[in-house]
Design brief:
Layout: E1 4-9, E2 18-23, E3 32-41, H1 43-50, E4 67-74, E5 86-89, E6 92-94, H2 100-103, E7 114-115, E8 127-130, E9 136-137, H3 144-147, H4 153-164, E10 171-175, H5 179-190, E11 194-199, H6 202-210, E12 215-218, H7 224-232, E13 236-241, H8 247-254, E14 256-264, H9 276-281, E15 285-288, H10 294-305, E16 313-316, H11 321-330, E17 336-340
Parallel strand pairs: 10-11, 10-13, 11-12, 13-14, 14-15, 16-17
Antiparallel strand pairs: 1-2, 3-4, 3-8, 3-17, 4-5, 5-9, 6-7
Helix pairs in contact: 4-5, 4-10
The structure holds nicotinamide-adenine-dinucleotide and zinc ion (2 copies).
Residues 42-44, 47, 152-153, 156, 175-181, 198-201, 204, 219, 242-245, 247-248, 265-268, 289-291, 328, 331, 333 line the site of nicotinamide-adenine-dinucleotide (NAD).
Length: 344
C-alpha cells in the first residue's frame, strides 16, 4: 500500500475543485479507515462547494457523502465493524448519542452532529476516515456503485415519503425527479402509493414514467398545482419537494390536499412565500426532513437488496468532478453520477 491518496478538494467557494495528493489518513481511537470504491455526487455537494448555506464548511474540505468502501484499518477500541466489511460513509457522519434527539432516534438534528463531506472530509477521495457507529452497512449482494446513491438520495427520500404520512392507495407528488426524485418515485411505488411526478424537464418526466409514476406534470407549463389537483382529485395527500429551486416550494404547497403534508427536502438557498390563509384554512402541514436515522438507512438499503429500488447511475472518474458539477448545475445529469474509485 502506498502512503498517498488522491482527493478532490474545495479550496475556495464557487471555484473548481482541485485534485490533491494527500497522505492516507490514520484512523484515531474509535475511528476506521475506509478504502473508497464508489461515491455518488449529490446536489448537496454542489451547494457545499458553492458555500450556499448559512453554516459553511471550513476550507479546504473534501465533499462526498455517498462514499461506499471497504474497511481497511481500525483505530483503537473499535468493535462495531471489522476489517473487510463494506460500509457507506453518509451525511450523518456522527452524533453525540445521548441528547434528547439522539435518544429519540432523531440524530440528524443533534447539535453535535457532524456531516460527511461537509464538516468532515468525505468520499471524493480514495480513503475516508469514518465513525464506525454511524456508517451504513451495505447488504452483501449490492454492488458498491449501486449502493452509493442510496445512502443519501435513497434514505432521504424514503424517510421523506414516510414523513408525508401518506398511506397505501393515496397520492404523493414527487417534485424534482433527479438524483433524489428518481429513487423517490420507486420507493413510493414500492410503498403502494400513487405517484405524480413533477419536473421542468420532459426527459426526467419520461424517466419517471418508466419507473412507474402514474401521472407526469411539467411545472413549466401552465399552473402545475392546478394540474396536480385535477389529476389527483383535490391534491396529493403527501408532497415531497426535492427540487433545488425555490419556485417548486410554493407550487408544492399548492399541490397539497386538505389535511395533507408537504415535506421539504430540497435545499436551494433562500426563502419561499407561503400562502398563509390556504395553509391554515386547509389544515396543511409543512415540514422539513433531513436525511434519516440509522434504522431508516437500513430499511432504505433493504428495499434495494430486495430488488424493489435501483439507482440509475452513470459512472465517471474522480478527475471528471468539475464537469459533473457543471452538468448538475445545468440540470444535465439524468439521475445520479457515481464516481468510480475502484480502479485506484
Ligand atoms: P438533482 O440536480 O439531481 O435533481 C434535481 C431535479 O429537480 C432535476 O430533475 C431538476 O430538473 C428538477 N427541478 C429543477 N427545478 C425544478 C422545479 N422548479 N420544479 C420541479 N423540478 C425542478 O439534485 P438532487 O441530488 O436530487 O438534490 C436535490 C436537492 O435536495 C438539493 O437541493 C439537495 O441539496 C437536497 N438534498 C436534501 C437532503 C435532505 O436531507 N433534506 C438530502 C439530499 C439532498
Ligand atoms: Zn446528499
Ligand atoms: Zn445528540
Amino acid at each position: 500500500m502506498t502512503s498517498k491518496m488522491q482527493a478532490a478538494m474545495v479550496e475556495q467557494f464557487g471555484q473548481p475543485l482541485v485534485i490533491r495528493e494527500l497522505d492516507i489518513p490514520t484512523p484515531g481511537p474509535g475511528q476506521i479507515l475506509v478504502k473508497t470504491e464508489a461515491c455518488g455526487v449529490c446536489h448537496t455537494d454542489l451547494h457545499a462547494a458553492n458555500g450556499d448555506w448559512p453554516l459553511k464548511p471550513t476550507l479546504p474540505f473534501t465533499p462526498g457523502h455517498e462514499g461506499i468502501g471497504i474497511v481497511t484499518a481500525l483505530g483503537a477500541g473499535v468493535t462495531a465493524v471489522k476489517e473487510g466489511d463494506r460500509v457507506g460513509v453518509p451525511w450523518l457522519y456522527s452524533a453525540c448519542g445521548h441528547c434528547e434527539f439522539c435518544l429519540a432516534a432523531r440524530e440528524p438534528v443533534c447539535a453535535e452532529a457532524q456531516f460527511g463531506g461537509y464538516t468532515k472530509n468525505g468520499g471524493f477521495a480514495e480513503y475516508i476516515v469514518a465513525d464506525p457507529n454511524y456508517v451504513a452497512h451495505i447488504p452483501a449482494h449490492l454492488a458498491p456503485r449501486d449502493a452509493a446513491p442510496l445512502i443519501c438520495a435513497g434514505v432521504t427520500t424514503y424517510k421523506g415519503i414516510k414523513e408525508t404520512k401518506a398511506r397505501p392507495g393515496e397520492w404523493v407528488v414527487i417534485s424534482g425527479v433527479g438524483g433524489l426524485g428518481h429513487l423517490a418515485v420507486q420507493y413510493a411505488k414500492a410503498m403502494g402509493l400513487f405517484v405524480c411526478a413533477v419536473d421542468i424537464d420532459d426527459g426526467k418526466l419520461e424517466h419517471a414514467k418508466r419507473l412507474g409514476a402514474d401521472v407526469m406534470v411539467n411545472a413549466k407549463n401552465g399552473d402545475p398545482a392546478a394540474a396536480v389537483k385535477k389529476a389527483t382529485g383535490g391534491g396529493a395527500h403527501g408532497v415531497l419537494i426535492t427540487a433545488p429551486s425555490l419556485s417548486a416550494f410554493k407550487q408544492g404547497v399548492g399541490m397539497t390536499r386538505k389535511w395533507g403534508t408537504c415535506v421539504l427536502v430540497g435545499l436551494p438557498p433562500g426563502e419561499f412565500p407561503t400562502p398563509l390563509f390556504d395553509v391554515v384554512a386547509n389544515c396543511i402541514t409543512i415540514r422539513g426532513s433531513f436525511v434519516g436515522n440509522r434504522s431508516d438507512m437500513a430499511e432504505a438499503l433493504a428495499f434495494a437488496a430486495a430488488g424493489k429500488v435501483k439507482a440509475d447511475i452513470e459512472l465517471q472518474p474522480l478527475s471528471a468532478i468539475n464537469q459533473v458539477f457543471e452538468r448538475l448545475a445545468r440540470g444535465d445529469v439524468p439521475s445520479r453520477v457515481v464516481l468510480d474509485l475502484s480502479a485506484a
